[in-house]
Design brief:
Keywords: Membrane, Transmembrane, Transmembrane helix. This protein is mainly α. It folds into three domains: 3-167, no CATH class; 179-228 and 430-591, Multidrug efflux transporter AcrB transmembrane fold (Up-down Bundle), CATH 1.20.1640; 253-396, no CATH class. It is built from 21 helices and eight strands. The strands form three sheets. The chain has a four-stranded antiparallel β-sheet. It is elongated. The two termini are 29 Å apart. 35% of the residues are buried.
Length: 599
């Protein structure tokens, strides 16, 4: 078979798989872009762009270079190598090295031959010689196109190894089944497809789902950026721990701001609201009495009551707008008042105030849910205490606390949206509603299991784990989608088609899982919370995706799987348990192509 035909067959066999993988992942991340969190937007856009370009490069540049390498390999197998085990000649395999050393070089290929398929038919494969697979190129051997019989007959691939090894086979056969193919296509069906295997699989799934649901009820929301964004053993982390223990580092400083008074009134007219702010805020169950609430207005009144004549005061306060402003400016010039000069803002002519600030402290931080309630409570109390001055509570920590409040709704919205989008894609690619629904069910089970696993792994629900829950939709669909498609193209009973799906694509799915594990195993020893969380959740996600895609889904398909694309009679698929046999000749025409999974 010529290089051009081999490349076309490669794309025909693996193109659907890499399209399913790339398209579902791309859509899952694009959906994640429509969120209110800027960090998640950037992450989703970056990963979606990467997936898109990887897909483009796979079907263009990679296939082009693969074709060039295949032509080089073909020339080497025909005896046109430069020398013994030359990397540019015969790569890791030798043909007839003794003859190759004395053989003349073949004429070089032109650019046209390399790019337009000239290498496919420029030379006729020389006949085999005794003592080796290859043959010496003979200039007298006429150059003519390969005949149709030669073109259609596949070459012998059992190539001798260059370097003798004390173990393993002496010949390498690339068409022999791999260990993962044997595991998924031979050994696994013998365990899970008999009736007793199905019972065991359902019992394991029920137990796992029960543990996941229990974990879901125990997971709580928490995020500590100061501590978790630092690696274990950091001196800065130790400093934060000392601050939290002895100096109130676990408390949140909250500033209460008042704004410009309504038209026709002034801060002098609204002194009751200024006086009510400290008492109202300290009465909250989330606010602390120590350190005390710092109110510039309370200290100002203490100064006025101490240095001004009682006759000039009304209920212990300045008696007029002019006195209020004059005495306030006077107090700010004293050593005590100078510390609060930045807490008040005057209008341009200094006849009234435009804004002011008071400061209080919360109780010790508990968790994210507590922080959300604190934020809601102090905002409500600040507005209630100073309605005419538009009282507003603010803290730099509210940036994180508001994120805590958003993450729950965003998780539900993004996960559901991504699942719906992926379901639509699978519906289009599988062209079968029951099959697409089964794949969607596997996605839901993976996400539920992952969420419950967080509690067992001592992780909390936060912005970091939220990202993994969203991308889990795109990752888990790869494993189930490939198996479902292989099931749909197979013929025979449901039992036979489930076995065929595992034999046809199961090994490649396991290879994809293994490469994913290799990518994340480097995070296993990380001491940073973010990397530890990514490792735990991604590792668990791959395990869950493999279980539901390669074990649980085939069992479900063998029982309630939809009819095949190639079914001659719909009634033929009704019996799912009538046979535990391995598919035979019914799937031979389908087995001619082998899918390649890109996970």
């Amino acid at each position: 078979m010529g290089v051009r035909a081999r490349i076309a067959g490669c794309l025909a066999a693996g193109g659907t798989s890499i399209t399913i993988t790339s398209l579902t992942d791309f859509i899952a991340f694009i959906v994640g872009y429509w969120t209110d969190l800027t960090a998640l937007q950037s992450f989703s856009a970056f990963v979606a762009t990467g997936i898109l370009f990887v897909y483009i490069f796979q079907i263009t540049f990679f296939m082009g270079f693969l074709a060039l390498d295949a032509r080089r390999e073909e020339r080497a197998l025909r005896g046109y190598g430069k020398g013994k085990c030359n990397p540019m000649g015969c790569a890791c395999c030798c043909t007839n090295t003794a003859d190759l050393e004395n053989s003349p070089m073949p004429p070089p290929l032109s650019i046209t031959e390399m790019t337009e398929g000239g290498a496919d038919d420029a030379y006729t494969p020389p006949p085999k010689q005794e003592g080796g697979r290859g043959a010496v190129w003979d200039p007298s051997h006429d150059v003519h196109p390969v005949s149709e019989d030669q073109e259609s007959s596949p070459p012998e691939y059992r190539t001798p190894l260059c370097v003798p090894v004390p173990w393993g086979p002496k010949h390498f056969d690339p068409q022999a089944p791999t260990a993962t193919t044997l595991m998924a296509g031979v050994w696994l069906p013998r365990l899970i497809l008999p009736w007793y295997g199905k019972v065991i699989v359902f019992l394991i799934e029920a137990a796992g789902l029960a543990c996941a649901i229990y974990g879901c009820t125990k997971v709580y929301q928490d995020f500590r950026p100061r501590e978790w964004f630092l690696p274990e053993g950091s001196w800065l982390l130790e400093a934060f721990q000392l601050e939290d223990t002895y100096f109130g580092g676990g408390q949140t400083q909250i500033d209460i701001y008042t704004k410009e008074p309504p038209a026709g009134s002034s801060y002098f007219d609204l002194q009751d609201e200024l006086a009510a702010i400290p008492g109202t805020l300290v009465a909250s169950e989330y606010m602390a009495e120590v350190p005390p609430f710092i109110s510039w207005y309370r200290l100002f009144l203490e100064y006025v009551q101490k240095v001004k004549p009682a006759a000039d005061l009304v209920n212990g306060r300045p008696g007029s707008q002019n006195d209020f402003m004059a005495w306030l400016i006077e107090w700010l010039s004293t050593p005590q008042g100078a510390a609060f000069e930045g807490n008040v803002v005057f209008n341009p002519d200094r006849t009234d105030l435009l804004s002011s600030k008071m400061t209080g402290y919360s109780k010790e931080y508990v968790d994210a849910s507590w922080a959300v309630k604190l934020t809601e409570d102090v905002r409500m109390l600040a507005e209630k205490a100073a309605p005419n001055l538009n009282g507003m509570a603010f803290s730099r920590s509210f940036y994180n606390y508001d994120g805590f409040d958003m993450v729950t709704s965003l998780t539900l919205r993004n996960v559901i949206t991504a699942a719906v989008a992926v379901f639509i894609v699978m519906l289009i690619l599988l062209a079968n509603i029951p099959a697409a629904l089964l794949v969607l069910a596997m996605i839901v089970l993976c996400d539920v299991g992952l969420f419950g696993f967080m509690w067992w792994a001592n992780l909390t629900f936060n912005i970091i784990t939220f990202i993994i829950l969203v991308i889990a939709v795109g990752i888990s669909v790869d494993y189930s989608g490939h198996v479902a498609r292989a099931f749909m193209i197979a013929q025979g009973t449901r039992q036979e088609r489930a076995h065929y799906a595992l034999k046809h694509i199961g090994g490649e799915v396991l290879n994809g899982a293994f490469t994913t594990w290799l990518a994340i195993i480097v995070l296993a020893g990380a001491k940073h919370y973010i990397f530890m969380s990514f490792f735990k959740l991604l590792f668990a996600l791959v395990v869950l995706a493999i279980w539901h895609g390669v074990v649980f889904l085939p069992v479900c398909l063998s029982l309630i799987g939809p009819a095949s694309y190639r079914s001659e009679s719909p009634a033929k698929d009704k019996d799912s348990t009538d046979s535990d046999s391995v598919p035979g000749t019914k799937n031979k025409e389908v087995e001619e192509g082998t899918e390649v999974v890109a996970v």
